[in-house]
């Protein structure tokens, strides 16, 4: 199969995950959801449509303007029915962009599979229903689609409520006619929840759930989509070398120049129970070497999920939403090259599954309140420090963290006395004891800290930060100088509230510079 080499690709070396913070954007991001679509339209827009949260299907449009770094909700006009402008709420639909138009087909609303056909003109934000133009494909959800050049759209497979599908339809966006593609020879098993990606003159499909329910990990290529090629439509199964992704559905495949990035999705594990397992790994299909590779990622990934969206913006990838079998996510993550300025924040941000899940299902009203409170807190030194570090900007108050005075922290003093007496020193002066304990911690590694020390360590850490803030040592201007890195390091754990959370962090983060 011919692989065309594009000039822009994921850079060599490791990538890093960075969780987005309110300071990354203007405007209000979309509410949590899964089963939505997020497509690039034109040169500077990512259009998010539909999805599902708490059994509620959505029909809103939220747009990310990549040039101005702002989220906004356009006022759309067009076909209206029962007070609804545009398509009815839905999830697990197909959305494909051609020029300034976004085409929507299929999906699910409640238990109903949809077969209507819509177009959104993003120049004037107007919806037009195109369901009356010719014969449409049968209703379905979990189908996969892609743009064929700058005029046609191809759609494959899905689930119609009774059976898995393997048909291929072509839409001519000029004539608005759908045509079922006649294909001879072997073809992929019927499936839904897979991905469809155009690579040069071929349509690649990967994964999905098949007839009878098994999760698949096969890769197929379809030729014959371009009339000028004068090829008969035919499928070819591709068995590539390398570290292939595990079988999965509900994943994403995103272009990265000469590479295709596979992220997330879910499969099954266990021989008897066949329970769901959700993924957060990154695998690339390298078109230059035509093989699978594991993408080198140098830090903790986001929580595992499926039915999310992943969009490429320049050299960065934007991850939004998804579902892990229990929670619907509303968090936003960046996957960036190591030399991206944003990557520096990844080294300082103590991101884990706990902090990410905290930003899952919430109402749009609460999101608006958070934005207002965030902007107010941004003007305090500690507030701005937290925003720069990528921590929650709703900083814990002194009372909330239960700051204990040093002289009243009997556990801290007892620990210090034990340490000093072990070295043969019988001093009882509090300042000397505490300094010795802090020196000990400062020279310790994360794995050498004992569990019994975590409580006193965290309380003393909070005290030191509050003292620094009280002495006006945390000026916002420091963010513009490289010398502020030590202060940023010192604040990496300020959001932790108990020893259990501290214990989780010590598994993979060094605790140096705490009491220096």
Topology:
Elements lengths: L14 E5 L17 E5 L3 E9 L2 E10 L4 E3 L4 E2 L1 E2 L2 E2 L8 E5 L2 E5 L2 E2 L2 E2 L3 E5 L4 E4 L14 E5 L3 E8 L4 E9 L4 E4 L10 E2 L2 E5 L2 E9 L4 E9 L10 E5 L13 E5 L2 E5 L2 E4 L5 E4 L3 E5 L4 E4 L14 E5 L2 E5 L11 E6 L5 H6 L4 H5 L6 H14 L3 H9 L8 H4 L8 H13 L7 H13 L8 H20 L14 H6 L8 H7 L11
What does this structure look like?
This protein has 516 residues and is α+β, with helices and mostly antiparallel strands. The strands form 9 sheets. The protein has a 5-stranded mixed sheet, with no helix packed on it. Strands 19, 20, 21, 22 and 23 form a 5-stranded antiparallel sheet that branches. The radius of gyration is 26 Å and the shape is elongated. Helices cover 19% and strands 31% of the residues. The relative contact order is 0.11.
Rg over CA atoms: 26 Å
Distance between the termini: 59 Å
pLDDT average, as an integer? 80
- Uncertain segments are 1-8, 349-382, 388-400, 471-497, 501-516
Shape: elongated
Major pleated sheet: 5 strands, mixed
Helical run tally: 10
**Quantity of strands, as a count:** 32
Proportion of β residues?
A: 25-35%
Short description:
By secondary structure, the protein is of the alpha+beta class.
Structural descriptors:
19% helix, 10 helices, 516 residues, five-stranded mixed sheet, single chain, disordered C terminus, alpha+beta, five-stranded antiparallel sheet
């Amino acid at each position: 199969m011919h692989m065309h080499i594009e000039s822009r690709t994921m850079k060599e070396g490791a990538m890093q995950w960075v969780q987005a913070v309110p300071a990354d954007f203007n405007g209000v991001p979309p509410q949590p959801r899964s089963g939505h679509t997020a497509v690039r339209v034109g040169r500077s827009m990512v259009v998010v449509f539909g999805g599902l949260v708490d059994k509620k299907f959505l029909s809103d449009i939220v747009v990310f303007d990549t040039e101005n770094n702002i989220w906004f909700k356009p006022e759309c006009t067009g076909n209206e029915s029962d007070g609804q402008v545009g398509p009815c709420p839905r999830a697990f639909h197909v959305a494909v962009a051609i020029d300034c138009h976004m085409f929507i087909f299929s999906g699910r609303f409640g238990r109903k599979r949809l077969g209507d056909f819509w177009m959104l003109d993003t120049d004037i934000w107007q919806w037009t229903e195109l369901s009356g133009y010719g014969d449409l494909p049968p209703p379905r959800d979990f189908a996969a689609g892609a743009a064929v050049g700058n005029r046609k759209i191809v759609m494959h497979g899905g689930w119609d409520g009774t059976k898995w599908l393997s048909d291929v339809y072509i839409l001519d966006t000029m004539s608005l006619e759908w045509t079922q593609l006649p294909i001879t020879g072997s073809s992929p098993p019927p499936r839904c929840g897979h991905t469809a990606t155009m690579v040069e003159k071929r349509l690649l499909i990967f994964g999905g759930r098949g007839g009878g329910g098994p999760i698949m990990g096969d890769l197929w290529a379809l030729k014959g989509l371009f009339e000028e090629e004068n090829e008969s439509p035919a499928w070819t199964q591709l068995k590539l070398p390398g570290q292939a992704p595990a079988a999965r559905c509900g994943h994403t495949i995103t272009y990265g120049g000469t590479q295709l990035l596979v992220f997330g999705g879910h499969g099954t594990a266990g021989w008897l129970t066949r329970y769901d397992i959700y993924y957060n790994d990154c695998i690339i299909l390298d078109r230059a070497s035509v093989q699978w590779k594991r993408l080198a990622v140098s830090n903790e990934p986001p929580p595992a999920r499926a039915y999310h969206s992943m969009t490429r913006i320049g050299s960065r990838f934007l991850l939004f939403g998804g579902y892990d079998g229990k929670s619907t996510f509303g968090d936003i993550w960046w996957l960036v090259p190591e030399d991206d300025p944003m990557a520096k924040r990844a080294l300082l941000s103590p991101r884990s599954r706990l902090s990410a899940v905290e930003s899952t299902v919430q109402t749009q009203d609460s999101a608006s309140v958070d934005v207002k409170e965030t902007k107010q807190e941004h003007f305090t030194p500690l507030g701005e420090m937290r925003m720069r570090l990528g921590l929650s900007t709703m900083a814990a108050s002194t009372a909330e963290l239960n700051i204990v005075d040093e002289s009243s922290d009997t556990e801290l003093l007892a620990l210090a006395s034990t340490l000093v007496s072990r070295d043969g020193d019988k001093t009882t002066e509090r300042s000397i004891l505490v300094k010795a304990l802090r020196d000990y911690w400062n020279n310790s590694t994360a794995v050498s800290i004992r569990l019994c020390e975590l409580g006193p360590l965290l309380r003393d850490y909070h005290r030191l930060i509050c003292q620094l803030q009280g002495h006006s040592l945390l000026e916002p201007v420091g963010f513009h100088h490289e010398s502020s890195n030590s202060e940023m390091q010192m604040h990496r754990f300020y959001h932790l509230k108990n020893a259990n959370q501290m214990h989780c962090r010590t598994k993979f983060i060094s605790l140096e510079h705490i009491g220096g």
